[in-house]
Amino acid sequence: MGQITATLGRTIREFIRQKSVLFWTVAWPILWVLIGCFSFTGNVPDVIVPHLRGSITISMIAFALMTAGMANLPGNIASDRERGLLSKLKSMPIDPWRDFVGRFLGLLAFSSLALISIALVGYICGARFSYTIIGAWQSIGFVFLIIFASSGIGMLIGTFIKHVHGAIMTGVGITVISAAISGVMAPYSSLPWILQQFARTFPISSANSSIIYLLAGEDYAGYNPLGIIQTSLTITMSIILFAVGMIVYSRLCWMKE
Amino acid sequence: MDAVYVENMTKKYGQNEVLRGVNLRIEEGEFYALMGPNGSGKTTLASIIASVKSPTSGKIEIYGKPPEKAREFIGYVPQENFSSPMLTGKENLLYFAGLLGYSKHKAEEIANKLLDKIGLSEDADKRVSEYSGGMRKRLEVATVLFPGARILILDEPTTGLDPSARRKFLGLIKELKGEKTTILLITHIGADAELASRVGLIDKGVIIAEDKPEKLKKASGLENVIDIETAIKSERVANVLSNFSEKQKVLETDLGYRFYCNEFERATPEIVRALDAIGCKVTKIEAAEPSLEDVFFRLTEKTVG
Questions:
Q1: CA separation for the pair B245, B40 (Å, rounded)
Q2: Among A121, A163, A235, B67, which one has the highest count of C-beta atoms within 10 angstroms of its own C-beta?
Q3: Which domain holds residue B238?
Q4: Average pLDDT by stretches of 10, chain B with 305 residues
Q5: What is the pLDDT, as a whole number, of residue B263?
Q6: pLDDT-flagged residues of chain A (< 70)
Q7: Which residues does B contribute to its contact with A (CB < 8 Å)?
Q8: Which of B149, B88, B144 lies closest to B120, judged by CA?
């Protein structure tokens, strides 16, 4: 066993065994998939319903990935700090980068579990997708970008907000607000112009729209997010957020006081 | 070789100087207790030795190396309960074994041995959230018992434990003492510090006295401590008792007072008479052995707890 495997194992166990984490990251989005699939499709022509349900399912997956990265991850870091584990780790011959990788892989595994659960419920509720093989791979790439961006923001929150409740509440707040104003939780077409610009710039909502575009079609995404400039911006910003989060966490959380 | 060598160390947080020129030497295999009240700087000193914090100035070496290069020798148990409540006792140990680079098979083997040693074999598969405070602390001490750690730094390990859990825990510490591991115990409890071969008393960021527990007591000049239980407790009673106590120092206890008087036989009737004169009945009076808390109180006029 190495440091990465040990940290990965601990992180995934802690996520899976905390009922509140499971509820807000898996059960809550599933609840919205159920509500969305059966309540918001009343006056919609039958032919559109499967893809509409598909786009709702994708948005809820994006929301779950945001919650995992931006609330669960900082909560986990803050909890380690509050209960003295970070102090303990600092006294051990441990490489902060390996700890980071272990945590991130734990988050990735947990996010995958949330993704599969929500997608399965969506499918059972009638969500359908139309895609090409290349489109499916591209979608997986955008899923990774959501996880990168969310965990980068999460690492920043976990580094700067010292207390568990503060870190979780900040993460939930940023998740809910950014999801609401960027079109993850509301149709892109219903957003005012200024928020539409934000939705195109914010890497998570842009990646979410890209997945919907690839798996359900432009009508459901509200626009074509796969322009070269927007896609480059989404990739660049996700990677920058991830890199900044990683550097700040590895330097500041592990810094000797 | 010195396990710990600290020379003229200071630590400042802004304008607040927490450590003010600390000098400390702990020999290899020695059991050293650092005792002081809250805010005296003992936890800061421990975390600097454990390589968690940096000193503002001064020199520090662990087995001849700077702390950050001696991490493989250091086994640090912070004050907080750092074990993961969501993991079982065994999973917690396996996590630390993984961090230290043990193979899965070896980690299992060592974890089982350690669980046996700390008496938690039967509870190994229970989640730590179901453990009592004492069980959790023993588990956390087990995380520093993996082969390789040459100095154990235990920060207030018995704080908050009930008497039975504390006894069990101290039994474990005594076992470790027998294994010739270097131990630095941070505590504010005299009875815990008395297990050590040497005790340092720290106050306001300075080690004010340091010796074997018996020698510290002897050097303090205290022969007798008087414990008195009275029908009433008031400032007036304390004032009367202060006339019989060295330097007028009187400590309030649960049932009465504790003060320092080397002439117990001669003073007892006078004390009873004086209290009787102010209408206070004495229900019990006895001479006791001075504790390290008493030594600290005598030196600083402050209580440790």
A1: 26
A2: B67
A3: 223-289
A4: 94 94 95 94 96 96 94 94 97 96 94 93 96 93 90 91 84 81 93 93 94 90 85 90 84 86 85 92 89 86 69
A5: 81
A6: 1
A7: 47, 50-54, 68, 71-72, 74, 76-82, 84, 86-87, 91, 94-104, 107, 127, 143, 153
A8: B88
Q: How far apart are CA A25 and CA A65, in angstroms?
A: 8
| 3 state SS of B59 | strand
| Structural domain harbouring A32 | 3-253
Sheet holding B74-77, edge to edge: B74-77, B151-155, B182-187, B31-35, B198-203, B206-211
Note the pLDDT of residue B164.
Answer: 83
Residue B30 lies in a domain: yes
The answer to whether the CB atoms of B74 and A92 lie below 8 A apart is: yes
Å from A156 to nearest chain B CA?
21
Strands B151-155 and B74-77: parallel
Angstroms from A193 CA to nearest CA on chain B:
46
Between CA A83 and CA B78 the distance in angstroms is 9
What is the longest distance spanned by two Cα atoms in chain A?
63
Q: Is residue B206 part of a domain?
A: yes
Question: 10 Å Cβ neighbour count for A17?
Answer: 15
Does residue B67 lie within any of the structural domains?
yes
Domain count for chain A: 1
What is the DSSP code string of A189-257?
GGS-HHHHHHHHHSHHHHHHHHHHHHHT-HHHHSS-TT-HHHHHHHHHHHHHHHHHHHHHIIIIIT---
Please state, in angstroms and rounded to a whole number, the distance separating the CA atoms of residues B107 and B116: 14
Strand partners, B153: B76, B184
Q: Which of B202, B218, B234 is the last residue of a domain?
A: B218
| Residue B184, in any domain of the structure | yes
The tokens 């000797």 sit on which residue?
Answer: A256
Does B151 lie in the same domain as B280?
A: no
Distance CA A20, CA A115 (A): 17
Residues sharing a CB contact under 8 Å with residue B93, sequence separation 6 or more, in sequence order: B107, B110, B111, B114, B115, B139, B142, B143
Whole-angstrom distance, CA of residue A252 vs CA of residue A188: 37
Helix axes A203-215, A193-201, angle to 10 degrees: 90
CB contact under 8 A, B86 and A13: yes
- Which residue shows structure tokens 């825990």? B169
Q: What is the pLDDT at residue A1?
A: 61
Tell me the two tokens of residue A226.
């796969």
Disruptive mutation site among A3, A4, A8, A10 for chain B (greatest number of B CBs within 10 Å)? A10
Residue A181 token pair: 């104003």
Would you call B199 helix, strand, or coil by DSSP?
strand
- Note whether B209 and B230 are same-domain residues: no
Statement to judge: residues B188 and B285 lie in one domain: no
